[in-house]
Amino acid sequence: MTTNELEIWTICESPSDYPGKYTLRRHVIAAGLTFADQNCIISDALEPLRARMRARHLHCLGRLEHDDPVIVESWI
Fold first, then answer.
1. What is the pLDDT of residues 26-73, one digit of tens each?
2. CA 70 vs CA 3, 19, 21, 46, 56: distances in Å
3. Which residue, 1, 15, 20, 65, has most beta carbons within 10 Å?
4. Cβ(63)–Cβ(46) below 8 Å
């Protein structure tokens, strides 16, 4: 990541590619474009993913009302 990029990590519950699971994906915003990392961390439970984000000293943004319904929260 460069200084001109912003990373946002998103936790989703039961996304279409991993039904019944939680996923954690990195999104990078750079030059007005958003790129989603194709790799993700998959978990049966929410708390281990939150613990990973807290360990990186990131801040939870929660969920916005216009977010996709599978989005639990985002971290920055």
1. 999 998 888 888 889 999 999 999 999 999 999 999 999 999 999 999
2. 30, 10, 11, 13, 23
3. 15
4. no
**Total-model pTM:** 0.89
Query: Which residue's entry shows tokens 């996709």?
Result: 68
Q: How far apart are CA 18 and CA 25, in angstroms?
A: 12
CA angle 53/7/24 to nearest 5° reads 45
| Domain parsing of the chain, residue ranges | 5-75
In the 8-state DSSP scheme, what is residue 27?
E
